[in-house]
UniProtKB/TrEMBL annotation:
Matches recorded under InterPro entries: FAD-bd_OxRdtase, FAD/NAD-bd_sf, FAD/NAD-binding_dom, FAD/NAD-linked_Rdtase_dimer_sf, Pyr_nucl-diS_OxRdtase_dimer
SUPFAM superfamilies: FAD/NAD(P)-binding domain, FAD/NAD-linked reductases, dimerisation (C-terminal) domain
Similarity comment: family membership: Belongs to the class-III pyridine nucleotide-disulfide oxidoreductase family.
Organism taxonomic ancestry: Bacteria, Bacillati, Actinomycetota, Actinomycetes, Bifidobacteriales
Keywords: FAD, Flavoprotein, Oxidoreductase, Redox-active center
Domain spans labelled FAD/NAD(P)-binding: 3-322
Signal peptide: none
Cofactor needs: FAD
Keyword Magnesium: no
Protein name in the entry: FAD-dependent oxidoreductase
Domain Pyridine nucleotide-disulphide oxidoreductase dimerisation as annotated: residue spans: 345-446
Any single Pfam family the record assigns to this protein: Pyr_redox_dim
Keyword NAD: no
Organism: Bifidobacterium bifidum
Superkingdom, natural source: Bacteria
C-alpha cells in the first residue's frame, strides 16, 4: 500500500488530500499541519474587519474532521521539523505534547505555502512581538486584527498591494483613521497601470485615507496608543515622514515557506519550488522526481503571458495545482494549463479586475508591449442608468498576442477579466479578440461590448 505525506494544509494541501483520496481511497495519507484548523480563506480578513462576514467560522470550507472522514490520517498541531527527501522520511513535533515522531512515506506532497515578508527594518521584530505591528495571513492574525480594530482609532497599513489596500479601505469604513504607506509611487502598482490606479487613489483620498507613497519604511518605534490598550501605539518612520497610530499592519508581500527543502530541491531565487506541468519537483540538478510534488504558494506557476516559471501566490493557483496532484500522483497524465494571475478587488464603489501583464509589469520583464485604453459605458445611454468602464488591454506589437487586461467601473466588471484570461490562455491575438462573439443585450451590454471594443481599438492602433 502506498503512503503519502502531505506537509501543510490550507488550500493546496486540502485539495491535494481530497483529490489523492478520491483517486486512491485505499492509500494511507498523512496530513501534517501546524494549525488546529485548515482551509482558512484569508481573503475574508478585510471583509470581517468591516463587518461584511455573516459568521467567521464560515471562512473555513473544510475541517480536520472532514478530511479524516475522507480517509486521511490527520496530524493537526504538528510542526514538520525536517524532511529527508532522498531518504523518504520526515520528523514532526506534536505541538501539544512536544513529542517528535518519525514518519516514512512513499510520496511527498509539499504544500507549505508562504509566510509574510518581514523585512529587516529597525524595530520591526520588537514591534511584532509586542503586537504593535500585526501580520495579515492566517486565522490567528485575523483574530488579532479584528480584536484591535474594535478599539483602535488610527492605523498605519504598510503595503498598498491588494491586502493592504483592502484592509485600509475597511479600516476607513469603520472609522479608523488610516495611513497607507508604500515604497512604490502608486497603490496596487503591481496589479494595475496608472489608467486605473489614479481613480483608486482619488477614492482613498475621498474616504480620508492618507496615502504615503514612494517612501520606504526605515524604522518602527513604540509610541503611546490612544485606545487605552497597554503596548499599543507605534510610530512608523519612512524616508519622508513619521506616522504614529494605535496599530500597524504589515502587508509587504509573501515568500515561499520552503526552508525545509533548501539544497534538496530546485528552487527559484526566492525559494519557490520549481515544479513541472504535472506538479513534480526536481533535484537541484534538474532531475525530475516522480514521487515529490509541490503546489500552491510554496511552488512556482507557469505564467502564460511570459511562458516562464514565476511566483504568483494566489488561492486560485493553490486550488488548481492541489487538485492536479491527485491526478498525477501515479503517473504524469493531466497537464497544468498555467495561469494568467487573474484577480479582482472591490474598493469602495469601484470594482476592478485584471488578468495577465500590466504595461509596467511587461516593461519590468523586458517584454515589448503596447497598451490601449478606452472608457465607454457598459450599456447604452437610452437605459435609465449606465456607468463608464475603463478598460486597458496590453498586447504584444511583435506577435499581436494579448498579454493582459485591466478593468475599472462602478458596475460589476469582474467577469471581464475572466473572459480575457481565457483568451490569453488560448493564445488569442488582438485580432481574434476583436472578432470574438460577445453578446449584446441592452440590460447588460453595448452593441459592441467593452472587451471587444478595446481589442478593436488596439487593432486600429497597431
Ligand atoms: C489577506 C489575504 C487575502 C487574500 N486574498 C486572495 C484572493 O482574494 N484570491 C486569491 O486567489 N488569493 C488570495 N490570497 C492568497 C491565498 O490566500 C494564498 O495564495 C493561499 O493561501 C495559498 O494556499 P497554500 O495552501 O498554498 O498555502 P498557505 O495558505 O500558505 O498554507 C500553507 C500551510 O502550511 C502549513 N505549514 C507550513 N509549514 C509547515 C510545517 N513545517 N509543518 C506543518 N505545517 C506547515 C501552514 O501552517 C499553512 O497552514 C490572499 C492572501 C491573504 C493573506
Amino acid at each position: 500500500m502506498t503512503t503519502v505525506a502531505i506537509v501543510g494544509c490550507t488550500h493546496a494541501g486540502t485539495f491535494a488530500a481530497t483529490s489523492i483520496l478520491k483517486q486512491h481511497p485505499d492509500w494511507t495519507v498523512h496530513v501534517f499541519e501546524r494549525n488546529d484548523s485548515l482551509s482558512f480563506l484569508s481573503c475574508g480578513i478585510a471583509l470581517w474587519v468591516g463587518d461584511h462576514v455573516s459568521d467567521p467560522k464560515r471562512m473555513f470550507y473544510s475541517s480536520p474532521k472532514a478530511l479524516a472522514e475522507a480517509g486521511a490520517t490527520m496530524h493537526m498541531r504538528h510542526d514538520v521539523l525536517d524532511v529527508d527527501v532522498a531518504g523518504k522520511v520526515l520528523r514532526a513535533r506534536d505541538m501539544n505534547t512536544g513529542e517528535v515522531g518519525e514518519y516514512r512515506y512513499d510520496k511527498l506532497v509539499i504544500t507549505t505555502g508562504s509566510a509574510p515578508v518581514v523585512p529587516p527594518i529597525d524595530g520591526l521584530d520588537e514591534a511584532l512581538e509586542s503586537g504593535r505591528v500585526l501580520l495579515c495571513k492566517n486565522w490567528d492574525h485575523a483574530m488579532a486584527i479584528k480584536e484591535r480594530a474594535g478599539s483602535a482609532k488610527s492605523a498605519v497599513v504598510i503595503g498598498a498591494g491588494y491586502i493592504g489596500a483592502e484592509i485600509a479601505e475597511q479600516f476607513s469604513e469603520i472609522g479608523v483613521k488610516t495611513t497607507l504607506v508604500d515604497a512604490l509611487d502608486r497603490v496596487l502598482a503591481n496589479n494595475f497601470d496608472a489608467t486605473i490606479t489614479d481613480d483608486v487613489e482619488q477614492a482613498f483620498d475621498e474616504h480620508g485615507v492618507t496615502l504615503a507613497l514612494g517612501q520606504k519604511v526605515t524604522a518602527f518605534r513604540p509610541a503611546a496608543g490612544s485606545d487605552g490598550i497597554e503596548g499599543s501605539g507605534v510610530t512608523v518612520v519612512t524616508e519622508k515622514g513619521e506616522y504614529t497610530a494605535d496599530m500597524a499592519i504589515l502587508g509587504a508581500g509573501f515568500r515561499p515557506n520552503t526552508a525545509l527543502f533548501a539544497d534538496q530541491l530546485r528552487m527559484l531565487k526566492n525559494g519557490a519550488i520549481v515544479i513541472d506541468d504535472y506538479m513534480r519537483a526536481s533535484l537541484p540538478d534538474n532531475t525530475v522526481l516522480d514521487d515529490v510534488f509541490a503546489a500552491g504558494d510554496s511552488a512556482t506557476v507557469r505564467y502564460n503571458p511570459t511562458g516562464a516559471d514565476d511566483y504568483i501566490p494566489l488561492a486560485t493557483n493553490a486550488v488548481r495545482q492541489g487538485l492536479l496532484i491527485g491526478e498525477n500522483i501515479v503517473a504524469a497524465t493531466k497537464r497544468y494549463p498555467g495561469t494568467q494571475a487573474t484577480s479582482a478587488v472591490q474598493l469602495y464603489d469601484l470594482a476592478m479586475s485584471a488578468t495577465g501583464l500590466t504595461a509596467g509589469g511587461a516593461k519590468r520583464r523586458g517584454i515589448a508591449a503596447k497598451s490601449t485604453t478606452i472608457t465607454q459605458d457598459y450599456r447604452p445611454d437610452f437605459m435609465l442608468t449606465t456607468t463608464p468602464v475603463t478598460t486597458t488591454l496590453v498586447w504584444s506589437p511583435v506577435t499581436r498576442r494579448i498579454l493582459g487586461a485591466q478593468f475599472l467601473s462602478k458596475h460589476d466588471i469582474s467577469q471581464a477579466a475572466n473572459v480575457v484570461s481565457v483568451a490569453i490562455q488560448a493564445g488569442f491575438t488582438i485580432d481574434q479578440l476583436a472578432g470574438a462573439d460577445l453578446f449584446f443585450q441592452p440590460n447588460f451590454s453595448q452593441p459592441i461590448n467593452f472587451v471587444g471594443a478595446v481589442a478593436i481599438q488596439a487593432v486600429a492602433e497597431s
